[in-house]
Amino acid sequence: MTTESVPTASHHKSASTARPLHPLLAQRWSPRAFDAGSALTGEQATALLEAARWAPSANNSQPWRFLLARRGGAAFDRLFATLAAGNQVWAGEASALVLVAAQVHDADGTPMPWARYDTGQAVAHLSTQAEHEGLAVHQLGGFDAVRAAAAFGLDESLAPVVVLAVGSRATGEGLPEPFAARERAPRERQPLDDLLLSASDPIDCELALSA
């Protein structure tokens, strides 16, 4: 199977794709350079959280929970302290850090097996809305989940999943290496063919990619 790469936009980080994508998807990427002089407005914060709120979830369980901490506040400092050292190099310039947790069991103790999956969908919605708002999101797995839960008094039903750095992109000129080089590097993904599992009728995949 072969696919022809079609540039979707002139943005220097825009994805090169087999078919054109919506610009909000094609131009989304995860910077480490944030504008330390930019603040997250209340309207922007509400828009991001509303986008997450309307994500799909199993049985409409809506297991996602968000703790939004703006730069300059005590909550930001507490959340920042849980980040891995490499992330602390740059994440402090973000306008806000967001702790995202999943409710992994209900009030009766019954497990909610799709909670983390659904929470990931909510974050994807939030990230897309951020692009629409002229903002960027970098999702951080490098943080101490146990320390974060303790810092904000989360009970055992809430499992920290990820921390989001949110803000306006900067040029990256002040970033140390290797982070500065990563800002300049083109985005890369595995070939689409490599992501397809074997199908009972391989011709279906051929037709889907060539249609």
Per the CATH scheme, the topology name of the domain at 29-169 is NADH Oxidase
- Counted by DSSP, the helix tally is 8
Radius of gyration of CA atoms, rounded to a whole number: 19 Å
CATH level-1 class of the domain at 29-169: Alpha Beta
Shape: globular
Uncertain segments are: 1-10
Average pLDDT number: 89
Sequence of secondary-structure elements: EEHHEHHEHEHEHH
Provide tags for this entry.
211 residues, alpha+beta, NADH Oxidase, four-stranded antiparallel sheet, two-stranded antiparallel sheet, 8 helices, 33% helix, 16% strand, globular, disordered N terminus
What does this 3D model show about the protein?
With 211 residues, the protein is an alpha+beta fold. The chain has a domain at 29-169: 3-Layer(aba) Sandwich (NADH Oxidase), CATH 3.40.109. Helix content is 33%, strand content 16%. It is built from eight helices and six strands, in the order E-E-H-H-E-H-H-E-H-E-H-E-H-H. A four-stranded antiparallel beta sheet has the order 3-4-6-5, sandwiched between helices. Strand 1 and strand 2 form a beta hairpin. Helix 2 (42-53) packs across helix 5 (115-132). It is globular and about 50 Å long. The two termini are 12 Å apart. The relative contact order is 0.19. The model is unreliable at 1-10 (pLDDT under 50).
Task: Detail the topology: elements first, then pairings.
Layout: E1 6-7, E2 16-17, H1 23-26, H2 42-53, E3 64-70, H3 74-80, H4 85-91, E4 96-103, H5 115-132, E5 136-140, H6 145-151, E6 158-167, H7 179-184, H8 203-210
Antiparallel strand pairs: 1-2, 3-4, 4-6, 5-6
